[in-house]
Each structure stands twice: as structure tokens, then as C-alpha cells.
């Protein structure tokens, strides 16, 4: 496989826009799939994404836009998926073009609902993509800071480390560094869990818990993450690496974190439903909480933070009561 070949961005949101900016810093052109023709038309007319990261200007002569998912797949070699995980199945249902000879990069920090499957596993099982041709992007890397060209770091994971290294140059520029590893499943699970923990951090923030408590919370969260990862995918890893702990920290603390924002609204007294309606973007951790909770019914890892959030989001229990009980388990 000759990587990266022609690269396509699959998605039209903020993270997809940030990834397009990154890829165009190293490649002469890209293909870009967006679902709506009106979004493409406005993008070409204005020279920026009309709905997301609108301050980022693009040379549209370097972009081949598509609204037909099969056409963009046919014309591309490497597909970078950056759609919200709850909508991935909906997009892929239209796919009739084989994916098994494409290189898939998942930039989706979520899990496929209903199936409770990691993104890489979903592509492997339902679209016959070899695992060695699937990579994931992880790490503390908010789209808004990429837009501002603030120094960031990502990790590329692939079971074939040579494939990860072959595509790494695409994601290397003056404001972005990267590293490579083989922990595809560990990074995918960590990316789901950090969203879960960020919602809880937001709830605590909304309830006026301070920085002292949040530091203790993060210590307990990373330990819970370590225990879960070691149970579901035993592999030598250091959870203090930036792709695990770093991503957790930035998602739990940053004002750009939609999961923290979602949690903060709940902590301030919003109902779950109203908080979802007020959000302009998807809080992946809402879906991730249910998925991981159901997956953990098989592994039975002790996860008091996950269980607490599940009770708040899905059992409609009082955040004040649940968080108070949770604090009693911390050390």
C-alpha cells in the first residue's frame, strides 16, 4: 500500500475542518466530503466553512468537494473520518463502494451506539477493512486551537506501525507534532472515557466544586481508565502519556470542551434533555457513557465515576446526591 495517496476528509464539522487545515499544510490538495450541497456552495463562495471554525481561510482551488460519499471513496486512497460517532452508521449506510482496499483513519473520539463497537472494529467487521489498514488519531488536540495554530500533539495508532509512520508526515507541521504506537483499541477506549469523565468534571464545576477537588477527581479518573483499559485490552502502555492523560486533562479543563460544557449545564441545574437542546454540537460522552456501561457488564471493572454519570444521565438521579456519594469513594 502506497501511503498516503489521495486524502479525503469525511465530515463537515469543526474537527473535520481542523484536519483539513492540517492536511493542506503538507499536501497539495484534498478531497472533502460534506453531506449538504448548500454547505459546499457557501464554503466555495466565502472561502471558509460557513458553520465551523469560520476564521480559518482556505484556498478552495486546492479542495475537491463532494456530496456523494461513493464518489469521494472511489477518488481517494486514504479516508479520514471525522463525523460524530452517533451519525457514522447513517453516513456509511449509503456506501456501496468497497472500502477494503482503502486506508481508514478514524479521528472520531467516540463509539458506535447500539453495536457498542469501537470505530476500528466497526470498519473491520462490517466493511472488511484489514486492521492493518485502519489507524486512529488520539491526543489532546482541540479543533479551536488548531485553528489558532497553537502548538499541539497527536498520536497515530495502527496495528501495523510502519503504516502509522508512513502517514505521520501528513500530520507534522510547525504547530503540530505527532508520535506513533500500536495501541488502537486502548486509545479508542481512552478517547471515549475521557469524554465521560469530562462531563462529570463539568457537573462538578457547575456545582461549584473547586480546583482542589478537580485535581483529586482527575487522579481517580485516570486510575479508573487504567483499570478498564488493562481489563479490556491488555497491552503495555503508560496512561500518563499525552494520548491518555493529556487528552483527559484538556477535555476536563478546557473551555473548548463540549463535554465539559454539557456537564457544567447539568451541574447548574439544567435537565439532561434541556442541556442537549442548548448544545450546538454533540457531546460524545453522553452516548459513550451508555456504551461503556453496557460493555462493562461483561468485564465488571469497578468504575464508580462511570456508574455515577450513568445514574445521572440515564436513571435521572439527582446530580447533587450522586456526586456527593461519589466524592466519598475518592482518595
UniProtKB/TrEMBL annotation:
<dbReference type="GO" id="GO:0141153">
    <property type="term" value="F:glycerol-3-phosphate dehydrogenase (NADP+) activity"/>
</dbReference>
<dbReference type="InterPro" id="IPR036291">
    <property type="entry name" value="NAD(P)-bd_dom_sf"/>
</dbReference>
<comment type="similarity">
    <text>Belongs to the NAD-dependent glycerol-3-phosphate dehydrogenase family.</text>
</comment>
<feature type="binding site">
    <location>
        <position position="87"/>
    </location>
    <ligand>
        <name>NAD(+)</name>
    </ligand>
</feature>
<dbReference type="InterPro" id="IPR006168">
    <property type="entry name" value="G3P_DH_NAD-dep"/>
</dbReference>
<dbReference type="GO" id="GO:0008654">
    <property type="term" value="P:phospholipid biosynthetic process"/>
</dbReference>
<dbReference type="InterPro" id="IPR013328">
    <property type="entry name" value="6PGD_dom2"/>
</dbReference>
<dbReference type="Pfam" id="PF07479">
    <property type="entry name" value="NAD_Gly3P_dh_C"/>
</dbReference>
<dbReference type="Pfam" id="PF01210">
    <property type="entry name" value="NAD_Gly3P_dh_N"/>
</dbReference>
<dbReference type="InterPro" id="IPR006109">
    <property type="entry name" value="G3P_DH_NAD-dep_C"/>
</dbReference>
<keyword id="KW-0443">Lipid metabolism</keyword>
<keyword id="KW-0444">Lipid biosynthesis</keyword>
<feature type="domain" description="Glycerol-3-phosphate dehydrogenase NAD-dependent C-terminal">
    <location>
        <begin position="183"/>
        <end position="323"/>
    </location>
</feature>
<feature type="domain" description="Glycerol-3-phosphate dehydrogenase NAD-dependent N-terminal">
    <location>
        <begin position="6"/>
        <end position="163"/>
    </location>
</feature>
<protein>
    <recommendedName>
        <fullName>Glycerol-3-phosphate dehydrogenase</fullName>
        <ecNumber>1.1.1.94</ecNumber>
    </recommendedName>
</protein>
<dbReference type="InterPro" id="IPR011128">
    <property type="entry name" value="G3P_DH_NAD-dep_N"/>
</dbReference>
<keyword id="KW-0520">NAD</keyword>
<dbReference type="GO" id="GO:0051287">
    <property type="term" value="F:NAD binding"/>
</dbReference>
<dbReference type="GO" id="GO:0046168">
    <property type="term" value="P:glycerol-3-phosphate catabolic process"/>
</dbReference>
<feature type="binding site">
    <location>
        <position position="109"/>
    </location>
    <ligand>
        <name>substrate</name>
    </ligand>
</feature>
<keyword id="KW-1208">Phospholipid metabolism</keyword>
<feature type="binding site">
    <location>
        <position position="258"/>
    </location>
    <ligand>
        <name>NAD(+)</name>
    </ligand>
</feature>
<dbReference type="GO" id="GO:0005975">
    <property type="term" value="P:carbohydrate metabolic process"/>
</dbReference>
<feature type="active site" description="Proton acceptor">
    <location>
        <position position="194"/>
    </location>
</feature>
<feature type="binding site">
    <location>
        <position position="143"/>
    </location>
    <ligand>
        <name>NAD(+)</name>
    </ligand>
</feature>
<feature type="binding site">
    <location>
        <begin position="258"/>
        <end position="259"/>
    </location>
    <ligand>
        <name>substrate</name>
    </ligand>
</feature>
<dbReference type="InterPro" id="IPR008927">
    <property type="entry name" value="6-PGluconate_DH-like_C_sf"/>
</dbReference>
<dbReference type="GO" id="GO:0005829">
    <property type="term" value="C:cytosol"/>
</dbReference>
<keyword id="KW-0594">Phospholipid biosynthesis</keyword>
<keyword id="KW-0560">Oxidoreductase</keyword>
Amino acid at each position: 500500500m502506497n501511503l498516503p495517496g489521495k486524502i479525503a476528509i469525511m465530515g463537515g464539522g469543526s474537527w473535520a475542518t481542523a484536519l483539513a487545515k492540517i492536511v493542506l499544510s503538507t499536501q497539495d490538495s484534498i478531497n472533502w466530503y460534506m453531506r449538504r450541497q448548500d454547505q459546499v456552495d457557501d464554503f466555495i463562495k466565502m472561502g471558509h466553512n460557513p458553520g465551523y471554525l469560520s476564521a480559518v481561510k482556505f484556498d478552495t482551488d486546492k479542495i475537491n468537494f463532494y456530496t456523494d460519499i461513493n464518489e469521494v471513496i472511489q477518488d481517494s486512497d486514504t479516508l479520514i473520518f471525522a463525523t460524530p460517532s452517533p451519525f457514522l452508521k447513517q453516513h456509511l449506510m449509503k456506501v456501496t463502494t468497497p472500502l477494503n482496499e482503502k486506508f481508514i483513519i478514524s479521528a472520531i473520539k467516540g463509539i458506535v451506539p447500539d453495536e457498542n463497537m469501537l470505530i476500528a472494529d466497526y470498519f473491520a467487521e462490517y466493511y472488511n477493512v484489514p486492521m492493518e489498514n485502519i489507524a486512529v488519531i488520539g491526543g489532546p488536540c482541540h479543533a479551536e486551537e488548531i485553528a489558532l495554530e497553537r502548538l499541539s500533539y497527536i498520536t497515530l495508532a495502527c496495528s501495523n506501525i510502519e503504516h502509522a509512520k508512513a502517514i505521520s508526515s501528513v500530520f507534522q507541521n510547525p504547530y503540530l507534532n505527532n508520535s506513533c504506537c500500536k495501541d488502537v483499541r486502548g486509545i479508542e477506549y481512552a478517547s471515549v472515557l475521557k469524554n465521560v469523565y469530562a462531563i462529570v468534571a463539568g457537573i462538578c464545576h457547575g456545582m461549584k466544586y473547586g480546583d482542589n477537588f478537580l485535581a483529586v477527581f482527575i487522579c481517580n479518573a485516570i486510575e479508573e481508565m487504567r483499570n478498564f483499559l488493562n481489563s479490556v485490552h491488555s497491552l503495555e502502555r503508560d496512561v500518563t502519556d499525552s494520548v491518555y492523560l493529556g487528552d483527559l486533562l484538556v477535555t476536563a479543563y478546557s473551555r473548548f470542551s463540549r463535554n465539559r460544557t454539557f456537564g457544567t449545564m447539568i451541574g447548574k441545574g439544567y435537565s439532561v434533555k434541556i442541556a442537549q437542546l442548548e448544545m450546538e454540537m454533540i457531546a460524545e460522552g453522553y452516548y459513550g457513557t451508555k456504551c461503556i456501561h453496557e460493555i462493562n457488564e461483561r468485564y465488571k471493572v469497578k468504575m464508580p465515576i462511570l456508574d455515577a454519570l450513568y445514574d445521572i444521565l440515564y436513571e435521572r438521579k439527582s446530580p447533587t446526591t450522586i456526586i456527593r456519594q461519589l466524592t466519598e469513594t475518592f482518595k
